């Protein structure tokens, strides 16, 4: 799977034993344009981790490296984005 971050294609790899899943479910390598996501967590955790890593990538690519390094900010924003968009992407309608 590939995902574009600010016009740059990044390969997404789902893998085992790469992370301490107590604290990390994913990792982005800016130089190689690769995002690794743990296979050892639920689909929802994988999707949220992908959103988290994409947000790191966006912030880095727009020159906001200091914000990209702020894990608390990235976690809060990526969680909010995930919760806002993922149910809609899965074909579910938001309650009106």
Description:
By secondary structure, the protein is of the alpha+beta class. It has a single domain, classed as Arc Repressor Mutant, subunit A (Orthogonal Bundle), CATH 1.10.10. The chain has 3 helices and 4 strands, in the order E-E-E-E-H-H-H. It has helices at 43-61, 65-68, 71-89; strands at 2-5, 8-15, 26-29, 34-38. A 4-stranded mixed beta sheet has the order 1-2-4-3, with helices on one face.
According to CATH, the fold-level topology is Arc Repressor Mutant, subunit A
In the sheet with the most strands, the strands line up as: 1-2-4-3
Poorly predicted segments:
none
Number of strands: 4
User: Can you tell me the overall shape?
Assistant: globular
Any idea of the CATH class?
Mainly Alpha
Helical stretch tally: 3
The number of domains is 1
Give a quick account of the main beta sheet: strands, pairing sense, barrel closure: 4 strands, mixed
Q: Kindly report the average pLDDT value.
A: 88
Radius of gyration: 13 Å
Q: Into which percentage range does the β-strand content fall?
A: 15-25%
Please write the string of helix (H) and strand (E) elements: EEEEHHH
Structural class: alpha+beta
The end-to-end span amounts to: 33 Å
Helix content: 40-55%
CATH second-level architecture: Orthogonal Bundle
Provide a compact summary of the structure.
This protein has 96 residues and is α+β, with helices and mostly antiparallel strands. It contains three helices and four strands. The model has no long low-confidence stretch (mean pLDDT 88).
């Amino acid at each position: 799977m590939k995902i574009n971050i600010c016009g740059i294609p990044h390969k997404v790899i789902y893998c085992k034993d790469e992370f301490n899943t107590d604290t990390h479910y994913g990792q982005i390598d800016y130089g190689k344009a690769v995002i690794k996501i743990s296979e050892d967590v639920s689909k929802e955790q994988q999707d949220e981790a992908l959103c988290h890593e994409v947000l790191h990538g966006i912030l880095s690519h727009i020159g906001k490296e200091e914000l990209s390094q702020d894990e608390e900010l990235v976690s809060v924003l990526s969680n909010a984005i995930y919760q806002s968009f993922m149910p809609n992407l899965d074909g579910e309608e938001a309650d009106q």
